[in-house]
Amino acid sequence: MMLTPDPKRPLVALADDDEIHAEVVSVWLDHHGFDVVKFGTGDELLAWAQAIADRLPDAVLLDVEMPGLDGFEVHAELRRLPSFSATPTAFVSGMPPESLLSRARAAGATAALNKDEHLLPKLSAWLASTV
């Protein structure tokens, strides 16, 4: 977990069990003016969210397929927490885009982003419209 303490920068919480992917996204977000707190599992993010005493994230990025709770389960649990009930959330996955979008909409997420070569520009556009 990495958190740069700068309250002027938007904070993104990221849960992804793929360490390389999480690091690439974290570095990219940091370079583009976001603080990042990252977790290797959805369970870790959920535990942090339930115990949060500092800054709430401006957005949450959830990998869909993770050990323990998957991204959809984590999202449902986050929505039960009053402080996270309206936090913009994007699912990120390598699953087929149509299936991902359908499941994300059904879950009430604000975005579904496919892990492909266009992820970072799509992520940038989503964050620009969200945060």
Structure, described:
The chain is α/β, with parallel strands linked by helices and 131 residues long. It has one domain (11-118): Response regulator (Rossmann fold, 3-Layer(aba) Sandwich), CATH 3.40.50.2300. Helices cover 43% and strands 18% of the residues. It contains five helices and five strands; from the N terminus they run βαβαβαβαβα. Strands 2-1-3-4-5 form a five-stranded parallel sheet, sandwiched between helices. Helix 2 runs parallel beside helix 3. The two termini are 21 Å apart. This is Response regulatory domain-containing protein. Residues 11-130 form the Response regulatory domain.
Structural class designation: alpha/beta
Any idea how many domains? 1
Shape: globular
Number of strands: 5
Beta percentage is: 15-25%
- CATH class category: Alpha Beta
Helix percent band? 40-55%
The profile of the biggest β sheet is: 5 strands, parallel
The CATH architecture term is: 3-Layer(aba) Sandwich
As residue ranges, the low-confidence spans are: none
Average pLDDT works out at: 88
Terminal CA distance:
21 Å
| Oligomeric state of this protein | single chain
CATH topology: Rossmann fold
CATH superfamily: Response regulator
N-to-C SSE string, H for helix and E for strand:
EHEHEHEHEH
- What's the arrangement of strands in the largest beta sheet? 2-1-3-4-5
What value does the Rg take, in angstroms? 13 Å
What is the count of DSSP helices, taking H or I runs of 4+ residues? 5
Protein name: Response regulatory domain-containing protein
Keywords: Phosphoprotein
Organism: uncultured Gemmatimonadota bacterium
